[in-house]
Amino acid sequence: MVELGTGDASAVAGVVAGLPGLTVRSWDVDADSVSAARAVVAERGVADRYTVEHGDFFAGAAGSPARTVITNPPYLPAPDGDLELPGLWGGPDGNALLVRLLGGPWENVVAAVASYADPVGTLEAAADAGYRVTSFLAMPLELGRYSREPKVLDRIRDLVAADRGWADDDSYMVAVALFTRSPLLRVDRSAELAGALQLGVPALAA
Fold first, then answer.
1. Max Cα separation, the chain?
2. Using one digit for the tens of pLDDT, what is the confidence trace for 82-130?
3. Where does the sequence pass through the membrane (predicted)?
4. Is the Cβ–Cβ distance between 44 and 120 less than 8 Å?
5. Which secondary-structure segment (H or E) carries 9?
6. Where residue 205 falls among pLDDT bands split at 50, 70, 90?
7. How do strand 171-180 and strand 108-114 relate by DSSP bridges?
């Protein structure tokens, strides 16, 4: 596997520790995150199978033989990246990195999808690229400090008003979904995922 955005590495390091045959090569653009993640990976004893590199994923992973990419991409929607925490900016609609990833060569993409970051556009891009959603796990989260930053919250409200996402005054939904092109997995739960993200199927088809 390859990974876009390492973060603190704790979740993936735990998976690697439990699956002796799994190797993951990860990239993060934040040097401090890379240093912290490498410490976690070393502590878990999986540094030989979970490598963390400082740099751009799309440049580093180009030509990789890996078939699966995993990511929890930045998904704050805002007109620009001049935010309290710029590393969380996901483009004007919040889904820029995920849509770019779905335009790549990967057979499988395991990704977090936020209900306020134009999931309609994300699911449309996935379908256009030949992906099906074969499984997902959705959960509610509270709107926090960064999603309540005024320019972010205004953009979230714009997307919700345009039927391109969902959030209420206090919360939103996040789903971890498997997008696949594998011919062995023919089921498609895209409409179910849309429902779990509080989207109507008519909105998805619009």
1. 48
2. 999 999 999 999 999 999 999 999 999 999 999 999 999 999 999 999 9
3. none
4. no
5. none
6. very low
7. antiparallel
End-to-end Cα distance, the chain = 34
**One-character DSSP codes across 34-53:** HHHHHHHHHHTT-TTTEEEE
Q: How many other C-beta atoms lie within 10 A of the C-beta of residue 71?
A: 20
How far apart are alpha carbons 177 and 108 in whole angstroms? 10
Distances from the Cα of 199 to the Cα of 28, 33, 180, 194, angstroms: 31, 33, 21, 5
Q: What is the pLDDT of residue 164?
A: 94
Q: Is the dihedral of CA 28, 32, 36, 41 positive or negative?
A: positive
- Domain map (residue ranges) of the chain: 2-205
Cα-trace Rg, the chain: 17
Q: What's the predicted TM-score (pTM) here? A: 0.92
Q: Which tokens sit at 8?
A: 């603190």
| Band (204; pLDDT cuts 50, 70, 90) | very low
Class in CATH terms, 2-205 = alpha beta
